[in-house]
Amino acid sequence: QVQLAESGGGLVQAGGSLRLSCAVSGRTSSRCGTGWFRQAPGKEREFVAAISWTSDTTYLGNSVKGRFTISRDNAKNSVYLQMNSLKPEDTAVYYCAAIPLGRYYTGGYYSAAQYDFWGQGTQVTVSS
């Protein structure tokens, strides 16, 4: 089992920045990669970013490349999503999730269906 809890969401103006945090815990957390997804009203859940347990690989969705970065600090049991140059279209509920490393390294990191555990989500609203 893996437990995840997001924090750091809020309201920000376009062009601004936010850093989301995901607290990751549980007996099997070291055998999982971590991903960030987002879901806007009326839209499907969208892949944002993913990182392995050792941070040897990271991936970003096309819509956030060059603006967002993902990182982790295992000593603090935390994964971070740094979001810069925010746009109104980034408005969504952001979720972090855990994926077994086997699925992560075989390319499953971009698919929400491949993740087994999810946090409750944190709202990010970007005003124009």
Helix and strand topology:
Elements: E1 3-7, E2 10-13, E3 18-25, E4 32-39, E5 46-51, E6 58-60, E7 68-73, E8 78-83, E9 92-100, H1 101-105, E10 117-118, E11 122-127
Parallel strand pairs: 2-11
Antiparallel strand pairs: 1-3, 3-8, 4-5, 4-9, 5-6, 7-8, 9-10, 9-11
Report on the architecture of this protein.
It is a single chain. The protein has 1 helix and 11 strands. It is mainly beta and 128 residues long. The longest helix has 5 residues, at 101-105. Strands 2, 4, 5, 6, 9, 10 and 11 form a 7-stranded mixed sheet that branches. A 4-stranded antiparallel sheet has the order 1-3-8-7, with no helix packed on it. The N and C termini lie far apart (40 Å). Helix content is 4%, strand content 49%. The mean pLDDT is 96.
Total strands: the figure is 11
Order of helix and strand elements from N to C terminus: EEEEEEEEEHEE
Low-confidence stretches: none
Q: Helix count?
A: 1
CA radius of gyration is 13 Å
Distance between the termini: 40 Å
**Please, what is the oligomeric state?**
single chain
* Shape call: globular
Strand percentage:
over 45%
Query: Which structural class fits the helix and strand makeup?
Result: mainly beta
In short:
This protein has 128 residues and is mainly beta. The chain is 4% helix and 49% strand. The strands form 2 sheets. Strands 2, 4, 5, 6, 9, 10 and 11 form a 7-stranded mixed sheet that branches.
